[in-house]
Specification:
This protein is mainly alpha-helical. The protein is built from three helices and no strands.
C-alpha cells in the first residue's frame, strides 16, 4: 500500500464532514461506524476477486490495530503476522 499523510487535523475534518451529513456523528463511535462502513463499501466495489477483497480487509484491520496501539501507547504490539504496509507516524 502507498504512503499516506495522516494527521489529527484530517481526522477532525473527516468527523466534521460526517457530522455535516448526520449530526449524530459528533459522537466518535457513530463516526467510527460510518468510517468502517465506508471502508467496506469502497473495498466491496473494487473489481477484485472476493478472496482478494478479504485479504485487503485483513491488511486494513492490521493497520488499524497498529495505529490504535501507537495512539494508545500500550507498546504491547506483537510481530505482525501479515506483510507490513503503509507508513504510520504518530501525530503530536
Amino acid at each position: 500500500m502507498d504512503k499516506i499523510q495522516f494527521s489529527a487535523e484530517l481526522v477532525t475534518a473527516l468527523q466534521k464532514a460526517l457530522a455535516d451529513n448526520d449530526d449524530r456523528a459528533r459522537d466518535p463511535f457513530i463516526a467510527i461506524q460510518y468510517l468502517a462502513a465506508v471502508i467496506g463499501f469502497m473495498v466491496g466495489r473494487e473489481p477484485l476477486p472476493s478472496e482478494r477483497k478479504l485479504e485487503v480487509n485483513d491488511e486494513l484491520c492490521a493497520l488499524m490495530k497498529h495505529v490504535l496501539e501507537d495512539v494508545d501507547g500500550s507498546g504491547q504490539r506483537q510481530t505482525p503476522q501479515a506483510e507490513a504496509f503503509g507508513i504510520w507516524k504518530p501525530g503530536g
